[in-house]
C-alpha cells in the first residue's frame, strides 16, 4: 500500500462490530438482537410488500413509516425522521448537529461508535467518567460542552438516567444539542420523547433492531423538533443517502402497530433478564443492574477473556471488550429461555 493510503487508513481506529458467525448452531448472545422472531403479522406485511411495485424507488420522505411512528408516540409526523438503522441517523447527527466548536461530551464507557464518529468528523471529544457503580451523572457534564450524546440506558453497562436529569441538562445547556440514544429504552427505561416538545435542543434516537426484532431490516428513527430534524435532512440529501426501502418500511410499520407482540416479547426478555441476573449472582458474578436486553457482569476470581473463550468452546458467544475499566466484564445478551438456561449450565461447568 502506498504511504499516502496507509496513512489515511491507519489514521482511523475503526469500530469493531460484534461478530456475526457463519455457523448457525451457536447460541449467539453477543450483539443484543432480539431472541424472538418478528411476529407473523410483520412477516406477512413484508411478504405483501413484495407484491407491490418494487420496480419503483421508495418514498424519499418515508411518509407512511414516519406517520406510524408519530401515531405510536402521539406526536406530529414532522417531529419524526427515519433512516437505515439508528447508526445512520447517529452518523448524520454527528455531521449536522454535534460538530460544534466546543467539545462533544459523552461518557468514558459507552457505545464504541461515538469515538469513531468523532474521529471521522474531526470532532473534539471530552469524557465524563462513569461512577464506580457505572451510573452516569449528567450534572458532571461541563458548562463548556459544545454538545452532548449518551445512550439511555448506557451501553455496554445497561444503567439509565432519569427523565428529570435529562430535562435539567436540556435546560442548563439550552443552545447545545443533546442526543439521547435510546437503542435499549424499551427494556425498562422511560423514553425522553415527551420532553421533545419543551426542549428544541433534544434529539431522541431509537431503533427497530432490538425490542422490535428487525435488526436485519436496518430501520431507525429520530424524534426532535423540525428545526433539528432539518439538519439531519440536509446531511441525508447532501450524501444522497437512500430512504428506508419498501420492504423495510412495510415491516417496520407493521412492527410499530403490533403493540401486543411487542409488549409480550419485551416482558419475556425482562423476565429472563431477572432470572439470568439471579443465576449469575448465585455463581459468584457481580452483575450491574441492567435496564437493557443484556447484562454486564464480572467474576471476581476468573479472567473475563478466558470465560468468553470457555463459553465459545461450548458454542455460546458473548461480548468481551478489551477496554480500560471493563476488560474483566462480559456483556451477555438475553436470549430465549432455553438459551439463558444453556448459558447458566455452561458457566456452572466452567466454574466448577
Ligand atoms: N446505539 C447503541 C447504543 C447501540 O448499541 C446500537 C447497536 N449496536 C446502535 C445504536 C445501532 O443500532 P442500529 O443501527 O441497528 O439501529
Automatic annotation (TrEMBL):
Which Pfam families has this protein been placed in?
Aminotran_1_2
Keyword Transferase included in the entry's annotation? yes
GO MF annotation list:
histidinol-phosphate transaminase activity; pyridoxal phosphate binding
Q: Which pathway?
A: Amino-acid biosynthesis; L-histidine biosynthesis; L-histidine from 5-phospho-alpha-D-ribose 1-diphosphate: step 7/9
Its recorded reaction(s) are: L-histidinol phosphate + 2-oxoglutarate = 3-(imidazol-4-yl)-2-oxopropyl phosphate + L-glutamate
Q: What are its E.C. numbers?
A: 2.6.1.9
Ranges of residues in domain Aminotransferase class I/classII large: 25-347
Xref: InterPro entries:
Aminotrans_II_pyridoxalP_BS, Aminotransferase_I/II_large, HisP_aminotrans, HistidinolP_aminotransfase, PyrdxlP-dep_Trfase, PyrdxlP-dep_Trfase_major, PyrdxlP-dep_Trfase_small
Listed under GO biological process in this entry are: L-histidine biosynthetic process
Q: Does the keyword tRNA processing apply?
A: no
Q: Which residues carry this modification: N6-(pyridoxal phosphate)lysine?
A: 210
Q: Look up the record and name the cofactor or cofactors this protein needs.
A: pyridoxal 5'-phosphate
Superkingdom in the source lineage:
Bacteria
Q: Give the similarity note.
A: Belongs to the class-II pyridoxal-phosphate-dependent aminotransferase family. Histidinol-phosphate aminotransferase subfamily.
The cross-references to HAMAP family, in alphabetical order and at most eight, read: HisC_aminotrans_2
Q: How does it assemble?
A: Homodimer.
Name by which UniProt lists this protein: Histidinol-phosphate aminotransferase
Tell me the organism.
Fluviibacter phosphoraccumulans
Amino acid at each position: 500500500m502506498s504511504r499516502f493510503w496507509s496513512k489515511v487508513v491507519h489514521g482511523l481506529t475503526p469500530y469493531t462490530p460484534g461478530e456475526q458467525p457463519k455457523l448457525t448452531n451457536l447460541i449467539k448472545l453477543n450483539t443484543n438482537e432480539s431472541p424472538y422472531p418478528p411476529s407473523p403479522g410483520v412477516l406477512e406485511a413484508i411478504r405483501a410488500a413484495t407484491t407491490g411495485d418494487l420496480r419503483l424507488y421508495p418514498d424519499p420522505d418515508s411518509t407512511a413509516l414516519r406517520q406510524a411512528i408519530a401515531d405510536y408516540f402521539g406526536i406530529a409526523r414532522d417531529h419524526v425522521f427515519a433512516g437505515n438503522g439508528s447508526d445512520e441517523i447517529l452518523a448524520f447527527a454527528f455531521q449536522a448537529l454535534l460538530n460544534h466548536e466546543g467539545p462533544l461530551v459523552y461518557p468514558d464507557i459507552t457505545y464504541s461508535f461515538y469515538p469513531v464518529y468523532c474521529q471521522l468528523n474531526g470532532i473534539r471529544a471530552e469524557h465524563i467518567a462513569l461512577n464506580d457503580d457505572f451510573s452516569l451523572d449528567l450534572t458532571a457534564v461541563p458548562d463548556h460542552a459544545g454538545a452532548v450524546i449518551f445512550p439511555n440506558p448506557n451501553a455496554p453497562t445497561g444503567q439509565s438516567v432519569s427523565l428529570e436529569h435529562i430535562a435539567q441538562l436540556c435546560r442548563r445547556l439550552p443552545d447545545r444539542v443533546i442526543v439521547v440514544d435510546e437503542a435499549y429504552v424499551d427494556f425498562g427505561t422511560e423514553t425522553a420523547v415527551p420532553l421533545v416538545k419543551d426542549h428544541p435542543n433534544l434529539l431522541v434516537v431509537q431503533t427497530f433492531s432490538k425490542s422490535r426484532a428487525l435488526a436485519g431490516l436496518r430501520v431507525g428513527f429520530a424524534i426532535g423538533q423540525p428545526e433539528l430534524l432539518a439538519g439531519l435532512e440536509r446531511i441525508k440529501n447532501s450524501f444522497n443517502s437512500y430512504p428506508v426501502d419498501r420492504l423495510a418500511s412495510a415491516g417496520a410499520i407493521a412492527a410499530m402497530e403490533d403493540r401486543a407482540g411487542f409488549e409480550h416479547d419485551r416482558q419475556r426478555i425482562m423476565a429472563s433478564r431477572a432470572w439470568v441476573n439471579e443465576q449469575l449472582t448465585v455463581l459468584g458474578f457481580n452483575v450491574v443492574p441492567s435496564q437493557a436486553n443484556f447484562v454486564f457482569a464480572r467474576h471476581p476470581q476468573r479472567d473475563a477473556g478466558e470465560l468468553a473463550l470457555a463459553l465459545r468452546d461450548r458454542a455460546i458467544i458473548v461480548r468481551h471488550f478489551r477496554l480500560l475499566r471493563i476488560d474483566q466484564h462480559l456483556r451477555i445478551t438475553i436470549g430465549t429461555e432455553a438459551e439463558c438456561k444453556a448459558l447458566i449450565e455452561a458457566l456452572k461447568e466452567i466454574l466448577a
